[in-house]
Amino acid sequence: MTDAFAEFLHGKTATASQIDFVNLIVSHLTCHGEMDPKLLFESPFTNSAPQGPTQAFGDEPAVRLVQVIRSINASVEPTEAASA
Q1: Could you give the CA distance from residue 69 to residue 65 in angstroms, rounded to a whole number?
Q2: Fewer CB near the last or first residue (10 Å), C or N of the chain?
């Protein structure tokens, strides 16, 4: 899963806020399997970037971040517990 977010950190100097932001996303996805992109504009994400991903990464990378999250969400298969 971290490979999906490598483009946001690798090959450039990432700030502490950017690293924290990506780590929070990976942690959330690891725990829940999917993520509503709206969460990027709520705590704990806004703790390090109060205006969300656009503050942490800029406009275009923030749009790409949402695309990556939606792509991961689309690849999630429902479990038996979720479909029961």
Answers
A1: 6
A2: C
Confidence at residue 79, expressed as pLDDT on a 0 to 100 scale: 64
Q: Which two tokens stand for residue 83?
A: 């479909």
Q: How many CA atoms lie within 13 A of 66 on its CB side?
A: 14
Residue 65 located in a structural domain = yes
Number of domains in the chain: 1
Residue 83 lies in a domain: no
Could you tell me the pTM of the whole model? 0.80
Q: Which domain holds residue 59?
A: 2-74
Q: Please check whether residue 82 lies inside any domain of the structure.
A: no
State the virtual CA torsion across 38, 43, 2, 10 in degrees, nearest 10.
100
More confident residue, 30 or 8: 30
